[in-house]
């Protein structure tokens, strides 16, 4: 018979250690993102995305900057049906915007390389966030 309490204790200890490592990474992420918000402006950065399947070596927090007008036009062109009426690849458009607008983790960093092992979904979410930031700015300026 296995000692259930010993297993529970070992599991709790493992999870506490993982939580402590994640908290350390979150602190590093917050420091870097705060500097980006100071540089670009708080309203120009979306840092609301978190890596759900976090593990050591990955960032916990992600940040995208507001898409610039050219990036918005490119995104909008890619999400429209073509002249033949074929459905657009909206996921590819969002991924492209996300990879272009992601500011944390920075391009060419080890954290970013590790993040890319998770697939493109995270970049799609960042792309949508970047386009949304641009939309909010356009609405505020009365351009939409």
Structural class: mainly alpha
Radius of gyration: 19 Å
Assign an overall shape: elongated
Percentage of residues in helical conformation: 55-70%
Strand order of the largest sheet: 1-2-3
Number of helices: 5
Percentage of residues in strands: 5-15%
Spans of 5+ residues with little confidence (pLDDT < 50)?
none
Oligomer: single chain
Q: Find the count of extended strands (DSSP E, 2+ residues).
A: 3
SSE string, helices as H and strands as E: HEEHHEHH
The rounded distance between the terminal residues' Cα atoms is 67 Å
* Major sheet characteristics: 3 strands, antiparallel
Report the average pLDDT across residues.
91
Q: Number of folding domains?
A: 1
What labels would you give this structure?
10% strand; 3-stranded antiparallel sheet; elongated; mainly alpha; 5 helices; single chain; 144 residues
């Amino acid at each position: 018979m296995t000692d259930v309490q010993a297993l529970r204790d070992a599991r709790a200890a493992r999870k506490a250690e993982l939580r402590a490592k994640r908290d350390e990474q979150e602190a590093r992420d917050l420091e870097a993102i705060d500097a980006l918000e100071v540089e670009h402006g708080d309203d120009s950065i979306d840092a609301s995305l978190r890596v759900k399947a976090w593990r050591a070596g990955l960032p916990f927090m992600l940040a995208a900057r507001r898409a610039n007008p050219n990036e918005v036009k490119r995104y909008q062109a890619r999400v429209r049906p073509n002249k033949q009426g074929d459905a657009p690849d909206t996921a590819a458009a969002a991924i492209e915007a996300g990879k272009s607008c992601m500011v944390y983790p920075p391009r060419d960093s080890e954290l970013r390389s590790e993040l890319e092992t998770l697939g493109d979904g995270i970049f799609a979410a960042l792309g949508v966030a970047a386009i949304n930031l641009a939309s909010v700015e356009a609405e505020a300026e009365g351009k939409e």
